[in-house]
Specification:
alpha+beta; 3-stranded mixed beta sheet; about 120 residues; disordered C terminus; two-stranded antiparallel ribbon
Length: about 120
C-alpha cells in the first residue's frame, strides 16, 4: 500500500481533538503529535467538547474566511468573533486553536470520490 503524505493543514473539528495524555517518560501522545509526525504543518483543534451546531457555524465561517483569502489565524479569529457577536457563549467558540505554522502552503481542496 502506498501512503500519501499528510496535507499541510489539518482541521479536526470534533470534540477535544487537542487532548492528549501523559505516558511514562513524560511523552505526550495525541492527535496533534500524530498529525505532525505524519507531516502536517498546521492543525486546527478543539480543546473541549463543543455543541455540534456551534461547531458547524464556526467551521462554515472559518472556511468562508479562507475562501475570501484570509490567512488561517485570521479566518479562525473571524469565525470565533462571528459566533461571539451573535451572542454565543465562549464555550461554543473559544475551544478552537491553531497550532503550528500560521502560513502553510494552502492548495485548493481535492474532492475525494467514494468507492462503492
Amino acid at each position: 500500500a502506498h501512503l500519501r503524505p499528510a496535507p499541510a493543514v489539518v482541521v479536526l473539528s470534533g470534540c477535544e481533538t487537542a487532548s492528549h495524555r501523559l505516558l511514562p517518560g513524560d511523552e505526550l501522545v495525541g492527535f496533534a503529535r500524530a498529525w505532525f509526525h505524519a507531516g502536517a504543518r498546521t492543525l486546527v483543534l478543539s480543546l473541549w467538547p463543543v455543541e455540534d451546531t456551534a461547531a458547524y457555524h464556526l467551521m462554515r465561517a472559518f472556511y468562508a474566511g479562507l475562501a475570501r483569502g484570509d490567512r488561517l489565524p485570521a479566518a479562525l479569529r473571524y469565525s470565533a468573533l462571528s459566533l461571539r457577536d451573535g451572542g454565543a457563549h465562549p464555550l461554543h467558540w473559544a475551544a478552537f486553536v491553531l497550532v503550528g505554522d500560521p502560513d502553510p502552503p494552502i492548495q485548493p481542496a481535492v474532492r475525494s470520490r467514494s468507492v462503492t
